[in-house]
Amino acid sequence: MSKYDTRYASSPQAVKKYDTQELRDEFLIEKVMKTDELRWVYSHYDRFMVAGLVPVNKKIKLETIDPLKAPFFLERRELGIINVGESGDVNVDGTAYELGHKEALYLGQGNKEVEFSSKDGSNPAKFYLNSTPAHKKFPNKKIGINDVEVIELGSAETANARTLRKYIVNSVVDVCQLQMGMTTIKTGSSWNTMPAHVHDRRMEVYFYFEVPEDQAVSHFMGEPQETRHIWMGNEEAVISPPWSIHSGSGTASYSFIWGMAGENLDYGDMDVCKINELR
After folding, report:
1. Which domains does the chain have, with CATH numbers?
2. Do 272 and 195 touch, CB atoms closer than 8 A?
3. What is the gyration radius of the CA atoms in the chain, in angstroms?
C-alpha cells in the first residue's frame, strides 16, 4: 500500500482562532514532489486526494491506501495527472501514455494497474496527481497542450493578467466530478483569482510551481470578511475549504494547478467577492 497523511475538515469558526502554524498544519502541503515515492494527502473535504511523484531510479506503481478499503486504487475513484517535469510514461493496464511537459492524462474508474516512469531519470518527469471518488467509468484520455481550453483573464493595470488553461473539465473530457487546470501569471502581474470568490458547492486545491527559488506566494484563504494568509514556496499545495476564498499574490511570476471536486461540474458556478469588501 502507498503511504498517506490525513487532513480533516475544519469549520470557519475554528479557523478564525488558528495561529500561523495551525493554519499551515491544517491546509498547507509542503514538499509535494517525492522522489521515487508516492505519498498521498487524503482530505476529508470531498475525499479529495493530492500527491506528487518524481520517478528517478525506478518505476512507481499506483497502489491503494487503507482508508479507501478497496483492492486497487481506482476501484471507486478517478485520477487526473499533469506532468510539470520532463517527458515520462504512464502505463495503464498495458497501454502506455507518454506525457510531455505540461501534458495531462485522465484515468477513469476501474483501471487496475497503473505505473509511472521517466524517460530519463537525470531529467525526470514530475507527475502531479489529484483523485476524487467516482460513480461511473469514463474513458481514459490524454490531454495535450493543443487540446486544452485557453482563457485570457485580468489585465496589467490590475496586476492580475494571466492565462488559464482547462485540462480536465467536462467540456474537454468526460468526468464524474474531478476538474483540473493550470493558470500562469504573466510577467509584471502578481495576483491570481482576483477578484476572489467562493463556491460552497466545491472544494479546491492549488499547487504552486514555477516559483523562483528566492521568491514566494502569499496565498489568501478564509471567509471573505475573515481572511488569513499562508506564505508558500515552489511546488507546494494548499487546501481550500468550500467556504473559503482562494487567491494569491506572488513576489514574481508563477504558475499553479487548480483541482476541484464537489456538487457540480459548472466551472463558472462561483460567488464573487467585491474587492473593497474583503477583510
Report:
1. 3-277 (2.60.120.10)
2. yes
3. 18
φ, ψ of residue 12 in degrees (nearest 5): -60, -30
Q: Is the dihedral of CA 124, 119, 50, 164 positive or negative?
A: positive
CA 96/CA 197 separation, integer angstroms:
39
Q: Do 201 and 269 contact (CB within 8 A), yes or no?
A: yes
Contact 147, 168 (CB under 8 A): no
Q: 272: closest CA among 166, 180, 194?
A: 194
Whether a cis peptide bond, with omega within 30° of 0, leads into 133 is no
Residue 269's pLDDT is what? 85
Cα 173–Cα 132–Cα 69 angle in degrees, nearest 5: 135
101 annotated as ligand-binding:
no
pTM over 0.90: yes
d(CA 19, CA 205): 21
The annotation status of 199 as a binding-site residue, yes or no, is: yes
Helices (H), 99-194: none
Which residues in the chain come in under a pLDDT of 50? none
CB of 178 within 8 A of CB of 132?
A: yes
pLDDT at residue 265 in the model? 86
Q: Which residues pair with 227 in a beta bridge?
A: 222
3-state secondary structure of 171: coil
